[in-house]
Structure formats: C-alpha cells, structure tokens
Amino acid sequence: MKKRIFSLVLTLVMCLGLSIPVSAYSTGKVGQANTVSAGGASTGRIDKNGSLWMWGDNSYYQLGNLVSGNSQTVPIKVMDKVVSVSCSPGNTAAIKTDGSLWVWGLYSKHEDGPAKVMDNVVAVSCSSGNTAAIKTDGSLWMWGDNSLGQLGNGSSGDSSVPVKVMGDAVAVSCGDGFTAAIKTDGSLWMWGNKQQRRDGKWRGGQ
C-alpha cells in the first residue's frame, strides 16, 4: 500500500513538473566573530582580537591575498586591529582601530593588497563599483564608479579619489547603482539610478 501511494505521488510530481526538495549546503561553524560582512561570494569576519579573516571568491582580489582567482574555502588572515569591514562582489574595505580606512580589490583599483585611503573614518560601505566613508566630523566621502550618479556629486564621471558628498552624515549604505545616507536630524537621502536622480540628492521622507 505504501509503495502504491509513493508511486502515485511520484507520478503526480512528474506530471505537474514539480520539484522534489533537496537538502542545501548545511550550516557550519567557521569561527568566533564580533562582526561579519558578506558581499557577492566572499565573506569577511572580525574576531574578538580584532583580526580580519576572509574567504570565498577571489576573482577580483577582494580577499586581499594578491592572487586573483584563487578562491578560499578556509578563512585567511588579512590584517589586525580591525573594527569594521564591508564586503562587495568587487572590493572590500576595512576600518582599523586608529580610524584609518583600508581598501582592496579590482574595483577599488588596489589589486596588490590593502591600501590606506584616509584617516578619521567611523563608517564604511562598499558596492561592486564604489565605496562610501563617513569621517568623525560627519562628512561623507565617496569614490569609484559614477555611471549612474551613485557618487551624488552632480556629475557622471568616475572618481579614483574620495570626493565630499555631504556633511552631518551618521550612516551610509551603497547599493547596486545607488546610495543612501542618514543625517544627524534623521532625514534619509538617496541618489543614483534607483532614485532617478543622477543630478544630485533626493530627500526621502521627513
């Protein structure tokens, strides 16, 4: 009887074109972490000692180990004294305890490993083509791809060096072709392709 029921169910599944669920990759403990960031197919974690470890895809040097295409299934140590990390499909950024910002990866133009970009940084966010950083004085700086106006500087030209976007920023997040930031007064500002505002910034909400 059970075999007959199973046969009927299997026939129904095949006739309707349904898929039978299969188990996905199981979860697994990688190590201890205070902070983690995942972008594209790579991941970065900061352990309790402030060491940054990365693993996953390395097609664009985003793991910081100087060997493109050499993907890692086991975490590799990139640097010490790290308090924040942001991963994206094409580049990675990290803030150290002294406030210095370090970036690496193809789209950050630093394929040869981590490179220091600026000091006095308290927040950072990466997308596949650009990076945003907030300094201790609340100034928001961006650089990288600007083909969709995601740098928010009123132009469409890319920038290899940080350009100031606004002041009084407390949070920022880079998306696929657009950027969002929160100011000290709680107002949300957005710019880039998704907001159809390539000429500047748009305030979302009051």
From TrEMBL:
Q: Which Pfam families match?
A: RCC1 (PF00415)
Keywords for this protein: Repeat, Signal
**What Gene3D superfamilies does the record tag this protein with?**
Regulator of chromosome condensation 1/beta-lactamase-inhibitor protein II (2.130.10.30)
Transmembrane regions listed in the UniProt entry: none
InterPro entries xref list: RCC1/BLIP-II (IPR009091), Reg_chr_condens (IPR000408), Ub_ligase/GEF_domain (IPR051210)
- Where does the signal peptide begin and end? 1-24
Source taxon at top rank: Bacteria
The name of this protein is Regulator of chromosome condensation RCC1
**Lineage summary:** Bacteria, Bacillati, Bacillota, Clostridia, Eubacteriales
